[in-house]
Amino acid sequence: MNILSSMDPVLLSRILTEVTLFVHIIFASYGVGVPLMILLAEWRGVRTNDQHYVLLARRWARGFVISVAIGVVTGTSIGLQLSLLWPTFMRVAGRAIALPLFMETFAFFAEAIFLGMYLYTWERFKNKYTHLLLLIPVALGSSASAFFITTVNAFMNYPQGFTLQNGVFTNVQPFKAMFNPATPTKVAHVLASSYTVSAALLTCIAAYNILKGRKHVYYKKALKLTAISAFVFAVITAIIGDFSGKYLAQYQPAKLAAAEWHFETMRQAPFVFGGVLGENNEIKYGIKIPYALSILAGNSPNYEVIGLDRIPDDEEPPLYIHYLFDLKVSTGVLLVIIPLLYMLRKKLPGKKHYPKWLLVLLVALAPLAMTAYELGWIFSEVGRQPWILVGYMKVEEAATTSTNVGSMLVLFIILYLVLCISCIRVLSKLFRNRSAEEEMQERGMEGGDHI
Amino acid sequence: MSYADVGITILWTFLFGYIIVASIDFGAGFFSYYSVVTGHQNVIHNIVQRYLSPVWEVTNVFLVFFYVGLVGFFPDAAYYYGTALLVLGSVAIVLLAIRGAYYAFNTYGSSTKERSKVYMALYGATGLLIPAGLSTILAISEGGIIEEAGGRVLFDWREFFTNPYTWSVIILAIVSVLYISAMFLAYYAKKARDQGAFKILRGYALFWSGPTILASLFAFFQIYKQNPEHFMAMIDNSWMFVASLLFFLVAVYFMVKGENLGLGFIAVMLQFGFAWFGYGRSHLPYILYPYINIHESITNESTAIALIIVFAAGLLVVIPSIVLIMRLFLFNAKYVSGQSPKKG
Questions:
Q1: Which residue among A16, A199, A450, B216 is least crowded, i.e. fewest CB within 10 A of its CB?
Q2: Does residue A407 contact residue A3 with C-beta atoms inside 8 Å?
Q3: Shortest Cα distance, chain A CAs vs residue B30, angstroms
Q4: CA separation for the pair B101, B103 (Å, rounded)
Q5: How many Cβ atoms sit within 10 Å of the Cβ of residue A120?
Q6: How many angstroms separate the CA atoms of A26 and A37, rounded?
Q7: What's the CA gap between A338 and A349, in Å, rounded?
Q8: What transmembrane ranges does the database entry give (chain A) (predicted)?
Q9: How far A86 CA lies from chain B's nearest CA (Å)?
């Protein structure tokens, strides 16, 4: 404890925020994406009158509400920590970002209240579509929440819509602040990647069941729905990722330059993958793709990409984000390839349609997707350093001066560990106690439909 | 009315909503636990569970509404309270997190009727600790505990713990939670025609009614010592406190008679509503004596207008949702009496 209280409150505040967000975004991303998947499954089930899909929706929803609980409590946590750990930031920037934060609570309210209704009304309505309708506000509300929160993050990256006078925002235009140049790509990327990680998680579960030797057609239908969704969302995420690169080149060149180890401003800039930095920042062992960075940044080999030479030294993000970026992109590529292999499985060599190696890869989709998600987030946040509000306020000016951050850090780490472990235990018990086969029998669905 | 007045009225209303909804929830947790300990578990547990299951997330949202709105309308509040309340706020978050998460685990996660003692104890304990913890912020807002010195905001722990006003507010919070909750659950049990649960809950409601008034008076006179300026302003608004007392008598009368309990609970809400708004109105213009004054720390006009518009638009979402959830669960005879199928 003594070591902790002697540490810098700024650093400790950063660590505590990172820990909270690290946990929160796992559950938040599922919170955004899984309702959409449940909607797809139930809609398909109701439309084609296939009870397997309805059961799928039902079982997903049952697990989903457990993870939502952690999403809600960690979300409350990060919401309050914004003021507890970054009081000066909230005092200054609160004048501009209060609006989306306020809107987010309403979106969340709609989501929460309709989720409660959805869970408790499975057999309440005669028309099957009525129950399905309750899910639409859940899916819309959670995506809207993600939208509003991401606009706040976009504002931190590209603040606009105010004048700073004597440390106070004046002439604030809250909507201009919300819809800043960073907003379109950031929001789209967050939404698409949340859908991707959610589809990947459900793909993993379906593939795991088949891998375990469960042969019911229920699992095959589940895998088909989830893997194809994962593919579509992963492709969309990658395309939006490309737009994000172009946004960075134009509006936040420091982040792009640090990510690409692009030291000199130039045209025909090469893209560097991997590598290590020598003493004078020369790149060793990296794979260089000529012109690729210029094309990535501006769609033309002659596009001039701003390098770190134009960025003041004390405003340079840490250079290790290069690895975060490369790793994220590589995992992103796998997220497209693995479901694609599944879709082409009938054309693959070998006799089995569900070869073991393919199932193992599909199971790996969930951890891979979450890794990419976390890496992408860390990349984006660290890439904004040293700023909390790019060009206006540095992280160290924003943090609390309290000397108790260290012990709070310990407290929250324990809390998150306990919550996550309990969540995993509860979920595994929930599904082990009642397998899909048992449930199909209980509900009198045809059970002999094996392949 | 200035933007500051509109803003604080909206926030105070949210907090009032939280007090009513959350009190029902917190008290229910304690009563459930108490009934496990005293051995008539199943008598009231079902009633509590049936009411709480679909609405648990709604409770937290009211608190977050208030907090986000406070920071939005009065950004200085984020600075002073944020810096000073790191420890207290973190502890409150942890308690809320434990309560929310384990509630969900237990309700949605266990397919059978098994309920662990540990869970029930957590749920019961947090039901009293959270209101106790959150209510101290009201005590802090009277001034003397948060001080600004040398450009730093400091929290005086000694003053906080040794101040009788802090304790009077904590007692009032706990007693009120149990009173509001028992009044509501008794009404709900009556609606569900569950005579066994009704008898027990009616007993709790009447038991806690006397202490509620005593604790209110105690806190009232402690304000005189803590913040005479506020006390005088309360005297100027004394009709609101008298109205509060009258509605208390109406509520208790209906509960003694055991009839018109719906009206009785409306009287409970009016009792707390008059006291709450009387207290809040006389607290103005300060949110934190003497540092945050609503007229000085109000956000800029454009943000205030945008927040008010969003609030109005938000009500268009919130009110129909609440009406819908009430019709599906709270006031649906089939659901209340437990004949509807349970969760999926």
A1: A450
A2: no
A3: 21
A4: 5
A5: 22
A6: 16
A7: 16
A8: 20-43, 64-85, 97-120, 132-156, 187-210, 222-241, 320-344, 356-379, 405-427
A9: 8
pLDDT digits (tens), chain B, 344 positions: 788 888 888 889 888 988 988 898 888 888 888 877 777 666 677 777 766 666 666 787 788 888 888 888 888 888 888 888 888 889 989 998 888 888 888 777 765 445 567 777 888 888 889 898 888 888 888 877 888 887 788 888 888 888 888 898 899 999 999 999 999 888 888 887 778 788 888 888 888 888 988 888 888 888 887 778 888 888 888 888 888 889 888 888 888 888 888 888 888 889 889 889 988 888 888 888 888 888 888 888 888 888 889 888 888 888 888 888 777 776 666 666 666 555 55
Which chain A residue shows the shortest CA-CA distance from B97? A73
Contact criterion met (CB < 8 Å) for B78 and A94: yes
Residue B174 lies in a domain: yes
Three-state DSSP class for residue A450: strand
A61 neighbors A41 (Cβ within 8 angstroms): no
Candidates A20, A68, A97, A105: best to mutate against B (most CBs of B within 10 A) is A105
Contact A436, B117 (CB under 8 A): no
Alpha carbons within 13 angstroms on the beta-carbon side of residue B73 total: 27
Query: Do A61 and B344 count as a contact with CB atoms less than 8 A apart?
Result: yes
Express the helix, strand and coil content of chain B in percent, nearest 5 each.
Answer: 85, 5, 15
Q: How many domains does chain B have?
A: 1
For residue B341, being part of any structural domain is answered with: no
Report yes or no on B211 lying in a domain. yes
Question: What is the spatial distance between Cα A86 and Cα B54, in angstroms, rounded to a whole number?
Answer: 34
Say if the Cβ atoms of B79 and A90 lie within 8 Å. Answer: yes
Measure the CA–CA gap between A115 and A135, rounded to whole angstroms.
7
Give helix B75-84 / helix A87-119 axis angle, nearest 10°: 90
Neighbours of A113 (CB within 10 A): 26
**Which member of A110, A172, A408 has the closest CB to residue B86?**
A408
- Which distant-in-sequence residues (6+ apart) come within 8 Å of A312 by Cβ? none
Q: Provide the token pair at A183.
A: 């907003």
Q: Which amino acid would we find at residue A176?
A: K
- Say if residues B194 and B42 touch (Cβ distance below 8 Å): no
Task: Give the whole-angstrom CA distance, residue B3 versus residue B235.
Answer: 26
Residue B206 lies in a domain: yes
Q: Is A87 in Cβ contact with B83 (below 8 Å)?
A: yes
Q: Copy the structure tokens of residue A438.
A: 């048992």
Nearest CB to B55: which of A90, A116, A175? A116
Q: Which CATH class is domain A187-251+306-383?
A: mainly alpha
Alpha-carbon gap: A120 to the closest alpha carbon of chain B (Å): 4
Residue-range domain boundaries for chain A: 1-182+391-451, 187-251+306-383
Would you state the torsion angle of the CA atoms of residues A363, A369, A372, A378, taken in this order, to the nearest 10 degrees? Answer: -120
What are B229-257's pLDDT values in tens digits? 888 888 888 888 888 889 888 888 888 88
Domain span at residue B118 reads 3-336
Close Cβ partners of A13 (under 8 Å, ≥ 6 residues apart):
A85, A86, A399, A400, A405
How far does the CA of residue A29 sit from the closest CA of chain B (Å)?
A: 18
